[in-house]
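> Could you send the Glycosyl transferase family 1 domain-containing protein prediction when you get a chance?

Sure thing. Input:
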Amino acid sequence: MRILYFGVYNPDYSRNRVLIKGLKQNGTEIVECREEIKSFFKYLKLILKYLKLRRKFDVMIVGFPGQEVMFLARLLTFKPIVFDAFTSHYGGYILDRQYFNKTSWRAKYYRWIDKFSCRLADLVLLDTNAHVNFFVEEFGLPPDKFKRIFVGADEDVFYPRESAKKEDKFLVHFHGYYIPLQGVEYIIRAAKLLEKENIMFNLIGRGQTYEKNRKLAADLDVKNINFIDKMSYFDLTEHVAMADICLGIFGDSPKTDLVIPNKVYEAIAMGKPVITADTPAARELLSDGENVLFCRKADPEDLAEKIRFLKNSSDRSRIIGEGAKTLFNEKLASSILAGELLKHIRES
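Output:
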């Protein structure tokens, strides 16, 4: 099978990176037709590139992000199109980040483009069944159009390794873009509760709520948090390797229930014990006490208690980390996820 990967996607973004790599591992020939320039001319450039490749593929995959590209893709070909929606514009920009009011024209546009981009595809990919249910119920789309493909992580980048700590403290790691679903404010409040217990938190990244959370940390006078600027994909692995435990997401926005974030996949790929919110999406893959430790959403006291538990129970921490790596190897390797995708393509 020859697949044309099409759109304005970034091939280094984890979702695209994992699927393209896995498809190649499964013996699939990948032809890429993409454009990353910001202006409207990217669509013209995509058309010109496509015309040179139009007879060289069997199936098109529109990579993430792809809502705005789906209309062009359907105009260009009658061949099967797999749309890796991965996430919802409306769910992300309106329900989670709340950039615009639900009644605004922007919100209406995001709802419209989410819905009709999916309608144009022969098969739509999302990361969890909880996310599939959201698309079906929110946009009135048929459930048989969707398939779940977990996100995974690049196992050639995220793998278990030894890394010497820079300080003699129990190290808790988080990285992210400070969007509401991540609930960084609850991590900060949990850190304050653990301030006298020889526990240090590394919070890596910047984003929407960063300044608000820096102010919260200053107001609480938290002394056991290192705020570290964003860094490259590869440098990040060294910080994960140093950590005793890694954190997932803890917010209470609607999107929190729908996703398993990249950071969780990356940590379990490295065999790290992870604490994350107990959500329907997380329970599709993870088992509490076996390969993850769940805590209640938006609850810094419960998060602090779970961190304390793993700090004081090295055996359980080790069991969860080993269980996480086993889970990754059995269900989340690039070749396995892409193999599932190829099966869905052949059956559709």
